[in-house]
Design brief:
- The structure is a single chain.
- This protein is of the alpha/beta class.
- Helices cover 54% and strands 9% of the residues.
- The chain is built from 28 helices and 14 strands.
- The protein has an eight-stranded mixed beta sheet with strand order 11-10-9-8-5-12-13-14, with helices on both faces. It has a two-stranded antiparallel sheet with strand order 1-2. It has a two-stranded parallel ribbon with strand order 3-4.
- A hairpin with a 5-residue loop joins strand 6 and strand 7 (321-326).
Length: 651
């Protein structure tokens, strides 16, 4: 985590020794999902029995909860008000099945971190294959990757047995080029990729240097520097691990690549919002700015803020960003969208120059000679000025100076909350301080509490934007996502008026950008509910992921427990489908063998797993039968007794 290393370096001259990410795995398909894939393949390959498979496919989709991820546009009902599949046109059902097939392929190929990494441990051949497969995707086949790994062993042996560099070089060339009887040189388009793969293998084998780096640092020695990050996102520059990690020059953000991707992401966010809101632009979008994803993406989230507002970075000859220039409305071709920038404490402290530039941009936008109908920043500032609010152009909000975190995860962890609305108010109470060059007095860089401005921005926020920077940690893996992004969503919803049609407050959408996905031409933007379902299916509910964590002993059980708590957090601040809780109970609590292993590995973690399931049911997040609840209560009672026994044994 290079963002936290920056704080350690600045405050304590710290040395942070890097370690490798866990091996990658492909989610694959399992249980009902595997059955569904077989049904879809049979349907698409057959002709005579296609109509007989409709009910089976639909039933399997409902059991797996996939109908929400693959929407359908046919609504033919029978006399009982249920969907009548027999009346659906063949071409309509075929089109839906094609979309279903594409979704299953995406899910099957989705990457996740498999298990945990052991500091200083050299990867096995199987683990090396997983790294290479994730890195090269389909550019090299599994057979080709296995050949590279085998070659790395031969290269290592020949290097040990011969002191001759020329001998090693000849062996290397023979393995790759083969023996050409005509004396010519035969190469293929894959050779550069194989060269790169071999380089990666050799670098990964140097994981053993991680422990060397720790020992050297503890002895006060020199640890070589290296960029922080992960292989998939940042390439081979982060290898070998065991290095003293650093981040990037904050005065050069956003980078050219980040600026290009950020613009495309902003365009897609606005397009999706207009599609679901009858063509209307959002007046305010909240964008989370975190240190971690900012460093790994070179400032993509900053670029999104600029693009939404209608501004662009201005750089001097040295490449340093010196200003965020407003794009003329004639060139922009749409209204300037107001932005509530939610800063993490690490971003606030690490990128003060960016905070100042953004603050200056919002100030200029608020007084631009433009119609408020085309400049929502100015519109909202005028509304605040009319009420006598000071500094209405403040847009960069975070925790009190020197403080960190929303504390929502603490409250959820303790279970010390009643209504879901209270979680939004906890977030709001922890994020009322505005930052920027116009804040703080007496020459001291500090924030100013401006709750009135924050409330105005929350009341007009229609969408929240969050980037995910790597495969290793997603929305469902750590507490910080729901406790910030989810709670921010809830805080904005708390300030919405009741919808007369539904009697409920209007929902605030959340756009998730997986910064490790997409291409230079397209940046995928997904709704939070879609990403949550995809993550739960590919990881937490996946027996492959579960079994990898069970192999990690106490640490793996702890990771399972933390994700169960996060599930409750997301259910409180967004939506978690009922099937997720159903399958979580089946995979971790009601499976007798798994329950025993979890309890043996970490009794407290297993107790928390069962506790969260009971809590979800008690809070109305999960609906299940009485028999299941009774089983869980008995499991919790037994787990509680075991924890007490373990505690008493340490007396």
């Amino acid at each position: 985590n290079p963002s936290e290393s920056i704080l350690a370096k600045r405050r304590g001259y710290g040395t942070l020794v890097s370690y490798n990410v866990p091996p990658y795995g492909r989610a694959g398909l399992y249980l009902e999902l595997a059955n569904l894939k077989d049904l879809v393949n049979e349907y698409r390959s057959g002709e005579d029995s296609r109509s007989d498979l409709r009910d089976a496919i639909w039933g399997s989709c409902e059991r797996a909860g996939i109908t929400a991820d693959v929407p359908y546009n046919f609504s033919v009902e029978n006399s009982e008000g249920e969907l009548d599949l027999s009346a659906v046109k063949v071409e309509d059902f075929d089109a839906w099945v094609a979309n279903l097939s594409n979704y299953l392929v995406t899910l099957e190929e989705r990457l996740f971190s498999s298990g945990l990494h052991t500091l200083g441990g050299q990867p096995t051949d199987k683990e090396l294959l997983s790294y290479l497969n994730a890195y090269f995707d389909d550019k090299l086949s599994v057979d080709e990757l296995e050949e590279v790994i085998a070659l790395s062993h031969e290269t290592h042996k020949s290097t040990e047995s011969s002191n001759s560099f020329l001998s090693w070089l000849q062996s290397f060339a023979d393995n790759f080029m083969g023996d050409n009887s005509d004396g010519g040189t035969q190469t293929s388009d894959d050779e550069p990729l194989k060269d790169e793969a071999l380089k990666i293998v050799e670098l990964l084998k140097r994981n053993t240097e991680e422990m060397d780096g720790v020992v050297t640092a503890l002895n006060g020695g020199y640890v070589k520097p290296c960029p922080g990050g992960d292989l998939l996102r940042d390439g081979t520059s982060v290898l070998p691990t065991g290095r003293n990690i650093h981040a990037l020059d904050p005065y050069r953000m956003p980078s050219e690549g980040a600026w290009a991707r950020g613009q495309r992401a902003a365009e897609e966010i606005l397009r999706q919002h207009q599609d679901s809101n009858n063509g209307a632009f959002p007046e305010t979008i909240a964008v989370t700015l975190w240190g971690l994803d900012t460093i790994k993406t070179r400032g993509e989230a900053i670029a999104i803020v600029l693009a939404l507002v209608g501004a662009r970075p201005v750089k001097e000859g040295t490449g340093r960003t010196v200003n965020f220039e407003l794009v003329p409305l004639e060139e922009l071709g749409r209204p300037r969208v107001d932005v509530l920038a939610s800063l993490s404490g690490i971003f606030r402290d690490s990128f003060a120059n960016v905070v100042d530039l953004l603050d200056d941009m919002f100030e200029r936008a608020s007084i631009a000679e433009e119609s408020p109908d085309m400049n929502y920043i100015k519109k909202h500032c005028l509304d605040l000025e009319a009420t006598g609010t000071e500094r209405p152009a403040a847009r960069l909000f975070s925790n009190p100076p020197g403080d960190y975190g929303s504390m929502v995860n603490e409250v959820v962890g303790n279970g010390d909350w009643d209504e879901t609305e209270s979680l939004g108010e906890i977030w709001r109470g922890r994020n009322t301080y505005a930052y920027g060059r116009s804040e703080g007095g007496g020459g001291v860089r500090s924030g100013t509490a401006r709750p009135e401005v924050l409330d105005k921005l929350l009341s007009t926020t229609e969408r929240v934007v969050q980037e995910i920077d790597s495969v290793e940690y997603g929305l469902t893996d750590i507490q910080e996502y729901y406790s910030n992004t989810g709670a921010l969503k809830k805080a904005a919803e708390n300030r919405k008026q009741l919808d007369p049609a539904t009697g409920a407050k209007k929902k605030v959408a959340v756009s998730i950008i997986e910064a490790f996905g997409g291409s230079d031409d397209k940046v995928p933007v997904k709704d939070v509910e879609d990403v949550l379902r995809m993550e739960y299916r590919s990881k937490f509910l996946n027996p492959k992921w579960r079994d990898a964590m069970l192999e990690q002993g106490s640490g793996g059980a702890y990771e399972v427990s933390q994700r169960m708590t996060a599930m409750v957090g997301w259910a409180a601040t967004a939506e978690v489908d009922n099937f997720v809780f159903d399958q979580a109970a089946e995979r971790y609590a009601l499976d007798e063998e798994v329950a025993k292993r979890l309890q043996k590995n970490n009794p407290e973690a297993f107790k928390n797993v069962v506790r969260r399931l009971l809590e979800a049911n008690g809070r109305g997040m999960w609906s299940t039968d009485d028999e299941t609840i009774e089983k869980l209560r008995q499991l919790y009672s037994d787990a509680d007794d075991l924890v007490e026994q373990v505690a008493s044994s340490f007396g």
